[in-house]
User: Fold this.
Amino acid sequence: AYTARSQYYSVFSLGPFSNKWMVYATLGSFVVMLLVVYLPPLQAVFGTVALTSSDWLAMLPLFFLDSIAAELFKIHLRQRKAAA
Assistant:
């Protein structure tokens, strides 16, 4: 969501925390996800199981993969625009 705020500008140049509603939405989504994963009544409804710390560590690099790809693509677009 943070990288989608602009097609050309980096999330770092825009300021990742400059939009407080985006921060609230992101934190709220994360809290809801944790509730679905760790609260037994919600686990039954959604068919989830509690994740271990090693599960989270295995997924950690994947959390940032699409953001890194988007930022690299933005660099490419800016360089192409500057060359034109």
User: Anything to note?
Assistant: The mean pLDDT is 92. Residues 1 and 26 are 8 Å apart (CA to CA).
